Amino acid sequence: MIAMTKDNIVLNAEPSGKLQAIEQVGELLVRNGYIRPEYIDSMKRREEVANTYLGNGISIPHGLPENRDHILKTGVAILQVPGGVTWNPGEIVNLVVGIAAKSDEHIEILTNLTHVLDDENTVRRLTATDDPSDIVRALSGEAGATRRPGPELDVADFDHSVDVTVMNPHGLHARPATFFLDIAKLFDSTIVVEFDGRSGNGKSLASLLKLGVGSGRIIRIHAKGDDAMQALNALKDAVDAGLGEIEEEKETPKAAHGWTPSEVKRTIPGCTASPGLASGPIRQFTHRRIVVEAMAKDPEHELTELGHAVAAAKSNLRMLYNEVRSRSGEPQAAIFRAHEAFLEDPELLAETKSRIRGGNSAGYAWRQVIDDRVRAMEQHDDEVLAARAMDLRDVGRRVLRHLAGVLQDEPFTSSEPVILVAEDLTPSDTALLDPALILGFCTSGGGPTSHSAIIARSLDIPAIVAAGPAVLEIEDGTMAILDGDGGNLYLEPSPADIETAAEARKRIEAERDAEYRTRYEPALTLDGERVEVAANIGKASEAERAVEGGGEGVGLLRTEFLFLGRETPPDEDEQYRSYRAMIEALNGLPLIIRTLDIGGDKAVPYLDLPAEDNPFLGERGIRLCLNRPELFLTQLRAIYRASRHGPLRIMFPMIATLDELAAGKRLAEKARIEVGAEPVDIGIMVEVPSVAVMAREFAKEVAFFSVGTNDLTQYVMAMDRVHPTLAAQADSLHPAVLRMIDQVVRASDEAGIWTGVCGGLAGEPLGAVILAGLGVKELSMVIPSIAPVKARIRSITMAQAREIARQALACADNNQVRALKLP
After folding, report:
1. Residue 607 forms part of a structural domain
2. Can you give the pLDDT at residue 470?
3. What is the domain range of residue 201?
4. Do 324 and 332 meet the contact criterion of CB atoms below 8 Å apart?
């Protein structure tokens, strides 16, 4: 138990606002030896991505997880504010409880705090007391303190329960408890959590905190209702997965530029979302309001309109997916496949239809349902989940535009380069930004893990998020410097600062230009070993760009572009012409064509694919092709015909068994004989753990392996890579994935074939070095990554790469791998 004394408390404070209140309670923590002064800034930044207001006049400000090294020891400090301080609109705080949590010793304080939170009389008394001992006794749980034990909840008639261990480093504190209850609220069942002889309402934050669950302790979750088992499974999975705290240890990629300003009129802090420096005038962007009628007379007509709007939105998303994938790569484009999953949410659609049948128009009903869901998601204390609220809002607006008769919301346009400022940007907004005119952007909301931030990084646009509402008051034309690395927006900088920022930016650009100028040079390590670097492309026009970008061929051609967005499949001649055009554009460089990889997750009208509960585990890739041999043979004939015009290899996707591989090879041989072509190398994608585990057997049957790290990761980690809340945790640098790849490379070496990697990991500098160190011979990636990856490979020895790979294989999790330092 933390020792509480009068020195931990300041009475009758009068802070001017929330930030000053945090500063004052932070200074008290500093004076008592709990934190370094730097932690105060972290406490302020926490407020930008999460709300620390508990309710009933109490807040619990604390810092970001990545700044725990500034905590000297666990402790709390209390600022009494009798006159109250506004925490957020409508939230008045009288007791500011600053927390420095180096261990879970503070859990008991929080437990006692929730008893206080339940008792309005006690809160009023502590707010007005002139004796700090009153507060000491209340939060220490000493005799004499007013405490009302929460009523025990009877679980005798609950039919279902499950035991699970809370492994969060600091137990079931505010953030993971919020995560828990928000998942619990998704279900109709009554949910109770039992711990150490006490029980609490699983849908109440105060009730959960009152249990005082520490790290490594077992809780029993009870559920009663029609969806009790689903609720228990979801909650158990959530607790096992860390209740949203896993990703907090990750850092946004940064490129140190070493620049700091000397004289600016005002600094607005935010959170870094995309690194880089930008100088220019501010330009505000506001979405226009989409107006819809509240009521409608014909529910059936409105239901039909809803169906049409959802279908149109899905079509828009597919086109946007293809555009972003071609420009920024599959990981960024997958965001819009996740958006499509929102449109298929049965609860969301059912609630909308229910409101329509109650008399609302389709547009009004949809807006109300989306707004309710967004508000609920925004309350998540976990920044990753809160960031997903913007994705749902984006999807909502996309449908609403069709329901309101507005086909296209106004995208941001500018006739001059500007720094864009907005309340928030949807992923769709960000994907349509022109990097030539958008020097950088700053949003008042959002988070560094939002999909807009991810897209900004892929477009190389410096960005800051969560800078607060003050940025929305900046006048258009105000000169500013946006520091995406430091997370600050500097207003009205001095001419000297503008000049030094420009010089720093030029240094960064010079480094990138140097990489680009040497893009045609091979990726030879300092000790003379070569790694082939190729491009991933998704349409014919990109073949020439791949060569221009320094690619030594195409390591992955996604052929789906020929099959999507049309009413009938492409015939053999159309496919042949497209493949031949790409071969000729490559001018002798190799092309690896992946056969059709479509399944239940992609809408293809002419295939009439049934909806699947788990499309990534269903009929997709080679399974679909083997079940529709004429479709497959048509593609194979076109590929073999094109093979006469240059070097070409065939690659089968989603192979899981030797029987599938044998069947695919039989059909390929049939197609080759029919067109009279010479044999070509046939390889397979390694995306399924069964192939990695049996790599020795598969290596005897193919000419090469190409590891698809995106899919392999989701299957190894059992995390859907486009899941709105889990996708960010599916990290290909997890040692479990790296060990799979290591196993594949060893098997290929034994068999005398080569292994490449065409997933997103190949395009990361750290990932590329580790893969090279594992013995991967070819790295294939999105075109913008080719030059920097080549430069990185040329800067090390293969011995160094092997050592980094050895260290990575020995790590316990992906965070340890990402903490490894490159030479």
Report:
1. yes
2. 72
3. 160-246
4. yes
The more confidently predicted of residues 677 and 507 is 677
Q: To which residue do tokens 């503008």 refer?
A: 498
At 179, give phi and psi (nearest 5°). Answer: -60, -45
Number of folded domains that form the chain: 5
Percent of the chain predicted with pLDDT > 90: 42
The active-site residue out of 170, 222, 380, 451 is 451
d(CA 375, CA 377): 5
Residues 337, 363 within the same domain: yes
Q: Which of 271, 442, 625, 758 is catalytic?
A: 758
CA distance 755 to 742: 10
The answer to whether 723 is a known catalytic residue is no
The string of DSSP codes covering 604-615 is -GGGTPPP-SSG
Q: Confirm whether 301 is a catalytic residue.
A: no
CA distance 280 to 482: 9
Q: Under a CB-based contact definition with an 8 Å cutoff, are residues 755 and 777 in contact?
A: yes
Out of 351, 374, 403, pick the residue that ends a domain. Answer: 403
Residue 241 inside a domain? The answer is yes
Residue from 106, 173, 257, 402 carrying the catalytic annotation: 173
Pair 683, 806 in one domain: yes
Report CA-CA distances (Å) from 183 to 34, 111, 160, 388, 725.
Answer: 34, 22, 17, 14, 11
Going across the sheet that includes 438-443, the strands are 264-269, 488-493, 479-483, 277-285, 418-422, 438-443, 463-465, 271-274
Question: Is 442 in the active site?
Answer: no
**Residue 172 is part of a domain; what is its CATH number?**
3.30.1340.10
Statement: residue 87 has pLDDT above 80: yes
The torsion defined by the Cα of 748, 751, 754 and 760, in degrees rounded to 10, comes to -20
Query: pLDDT, tens digit, for every residue of 766-805?
Result: 999 999 999 999 999 888 889 989 999 999 999 999 999 9
Residue 253 domain flag? no
The structure tokens listed for 288 are 């226009």
Q: 3-class secondary structure for 179-248?
A: HHHHHHCCCCCEEEEEECCEEEECCCHHHHHHCCCCCCEEEEEEEECCCHHHHHHHHHHHHHCCCCCHHH
Residue 177, burial from CB neighbour count under 10 angstroms (0-12, 13-18, 19+): buried
Active-site pick, 62, 70, 257, 380:
62
541 and 677 co-located in one domain:
yes
pLDDT, tens digit (0-9, with 9 covering 90-100), for 162-221: 999 988 776 776 567 767 877 888 888 999 999 877 788 888 755 676 677 877 889 999
What tokens does 302 get?
A: 């409105």
Read off φ and ψ for residue 14, nearest 5 degrees: -135, 60
Strands (E), 117-177: 160-166
Residue 62 annotated as catalytic? yes
pLDDT-based confidence at 246, cuts 50/70/90? Answer: very low
Write the CA distances from 660 to 579, 667, 684, 698, integer angstroms. Answer: 25, 11, 11, 11
User: Would you place residue 562 in the very low, low, confident or very high pLDDT band (cuts 50, 70, 90)?
Assistant: confident
pLDDT digits (tens, 9 = 90+) for 704-739: 999 999 889 989 998 765 443 454 466 889 999 999
Based on the domain organization, do 471 and 347 belong to the same domain? Answer: no
- Comparing 110 with 631, the larger pLDDT belongs to 631
Domain at 111, CATH number: 3.40.930.10
Q: What is the DSSP track for 350-376?
A: HHHHHHHHTTB-HHHHHHHHHHHHHHH
Residue 155 has pLDDT above 60, yes or no: yes
Query: What six digits make up the tokens of 774?
Result: 């594992």
Looking at the structure, tell me whether residues 84 and 131 fall in a common domain: yes
